[in-house]
Amino acid sequence: MADYREAPLASRPKTLDPNEYFNVSKEYRRAEEDRAAIRAKLKGQYQTQLNNPHRQALIEDPALTRWVHARANPYLYFKPTFKTSLVGLLFGVVPLFGLYYIFKSDRDRKEAQIKAGTLDRKFSLSS
Question: In sequence order, which residues have a C-beta less than 8 Å from that of residue 16 and are 6 or more positions away?
Fold first, then answer.
């Protein structure tokens, strides 16, 4: 870590910050170690279930079950924020008004040319 030089246009990555490793309290380290132990224990249980040659049922992964439920029911977990409102406005409302303006202005331009007699109709059926 000592020979790492920061880029001129980027900040130091959080994983390379020495305060992240050396200036941490004992309680924080103990809590991290406890979380790592819980993760290792869960991973070991999952690996033993996965590699059991005599298993009959599917392995239930609670995190995967929660993810699938959230993907299947998006409106239960949707939070309206400024960003989602802006995206809905940009992709839902703006194209409608944009297309309306394009078609209406083109139609008005053609009508004005027809009234003035300057429109060159290439595919006229009457001539």
Answer: 1, 4
pLDDT level of residue 62 (50, 70, 90 thresholds):
confident
Q: Are 87 and 94 in contact (CB under 8 A)?
A: no
- Residue-wise pLDDT tens digits, 17-44: 777 777 778 898 899 999 999 999 999 9
d(CA 35, CA 63): 16
- Residue 86's Cβ-side half-sphere holds a number of Cα atoms within 13 Å equal to 3
Cα 62 from Cα 66, distance rounded (Å): 6
C-alpha to C-alpha distances, 12 to 7, 16, 21, 25, nearest whole angstrom: 8, 7, 14, 22
